[in-house]
Records
---
Amino acid sequence: MLYNAALVLEGGAMRGQYSTGITDAFLAHHIEFRSVIGVSAGALCGVQYVAKQYGRMVHVNTHYRKDKDYISFRHLFKHQDILNLDFLFQDHGWDWHNLDERAYQRSASNFTIVATQVSSGRTVTFEKPTGQELEDDLKASCSMPFIMEPQMTSKGACLDGGVADSIPYDVAQAQGYDKIVIVRTRPRDYRKKPSSRLVRQVYHRTFKDAPRFAEVGIQRPEMYNRQVEMVNKMTDQGKWFTFSPENMVKVGRLENNTDKLAELYHQGQQQAEELLPLLTDYLAK
């Protein structure tokens, strides 16, 4: 069933396996949203969800995580990004699931990718991009500062959308949605610590030609914590519905233990199944 509501997917690199478990459970129960908004890993999760490709991302990250062409610190010696996002959009043989762009384009859901513009440090969005633009915008949203280079898009060079807008419920609100479902990748009570002196120095040094981006990056913890407070408040009031991983297996941003990645995915699935009656009640009101 297609609900007149927005689904917002937080980033978090490999923690996105939790989000994939949640959205795969939605697919299994034919739950769709008029708007799907993804940032960073949430954008990769969102595009497979809109294309209805059940299990695609968990297959990629459990079968190919240790492929050196995908993620490897050895890339640094070749002056390449540690995380090779091009890998996700190439064909790797019979066991690989290519992104089904035709199914994505046919979807009734409007898909929005969130990124951060390097020149201004501001949030930029890309609505239902296709073809090469879809690939470029997804890579931009997922490009983590310091370990990846900015990605060129129709709105200039961009990096990780989470830098300027970690939980982009404001995008859903701007689209006119009051009913918002949020999938977090951190526990409900998680808060970020202020940027250390070293982090501030690295931002200023790395982005000396983009000082506004550097300042936004440095202030990210404060922005993130304010967003968490708003999400928790609106959820407690019953205005929004939130999934967050509680007491689940912990994985690193570039986790290479595929058993842990698979477990986090299944835990996300299980939690979604348990909360499904509450979710459908919320969406039906």
---
Amino acid sequence: MYTARFMFSLLSAIFALQVMAQDAPVDAAAYFSGEPFGWAVCSDASGKAYVLDGGNRSAAPKTIVLYSSGGDDYNAIFNAIKQYDIIIFDGSKGDFVLSKYMDIKGYKNKSLIGRNGACLRTQWHITPELKAVLTAANLGQYSSNAGTGGTLSNGQKVDEARELHTRQTIIDYSGDKTEAYRKSGFFAINTSNENLIFRNLKFYGPGCVDVGGADIISNNGATHVWIDHCEFVDGMDGNLDSGKREGSEQFVTYSWNVFRYTERSFSHPYSNGVGWNKGYLQYITYSNNIWGSGCERRLPQADWVYLHMLNNYYNCAGNAVAIAVNAKSHALIEGNYAASGVNKPFAPGNYSDMFYCARDNYGFGAYNDKSNTSKSLDVPYKYSYIPAKDVPAVLEGQHGAGATLDDIIGTTDIENIVAEPICGKAYNVMGQQTSHNAKGLVIINGKKYINR
């Protein structure tokens, strides 16, 4: 009797410990090193190493901490990117607001890092009133095929009928013939940019609408780019698109990010288009990302891309298609999880030069484990792997996907502040020109001084 009661108590204790372990929140930090990885740290298709260190490339990196001004922060942010290696966005004084996207050209070895809930928002956004006007215009009746468009009242020619009528409706509603709203995004980077890091930032766009407008981030050819633990919401055209690197190959990693749309969005919730540039290949790693509510297509869609889809979570029920792989593309699709209600988690295109290997996925139907080639599509770099069934718990856990890294990202405040003045133009911490005698911190010739 004693033995039976003891064994029952022991088994009950073991079961209780197992339940506690199952209910305990997952800390995703156990699944990543905090260092760049994937294709972004490769310099060729064989995996030859590239040192991706962002703003830490300099032996003594120049760092600035930015705070919201309460108005348009475009100039302050642009000036900081021009002058500093590491730009820290501190959200403790509110969200950063941008009147238009920044065309970042010629800048290398930069890190843009968020802390204290740093969030960047577009100044313009789709209002309920505008959304009602667009809905009443019945824009879905118009073709989105090329060659069906015409000319707007402002003289601009548009190739597609649906975009034509959408833009004309907004012109008539707003009275703005310049269509300034179409620049509502954040960063456009191109082939002159290299060794860039974006981490722990939230980006809130204006809402998606089919006007050929800006993306939240357009990577138009920048290479050795690591975008990690960020949140992309309501991009006008796309959330994070990549393409157009002409003249050489492109190596990037997008990891632990969240992509989604809200009720602000109207049409064209096509999150991540990649490739589309014949003749030049992109090598892209998508690892541990979440495609959430409102995402419909391009999750991602790839042409002329070597794609590694690793441990991503699709939680976008009612979408049209998730991963679409088309011409001149190779795709290794492994350990991904598609929630109930997600349509076509993987849709391979019918191209003779498109090869894929799908393995160990969950919720992908016939493409849980399937390949159309006998050759290896394995990548040349090392990476951590999460069993597909555990992906939702890890990615939605502590330090999981999104801007969740405040307590472990390791950002520091401004250092090396000295007291004596020198000659040269003076700027405050927002990058705005100020007096040499202004109280507090001033920046002169890239060095930091304090006036007491």
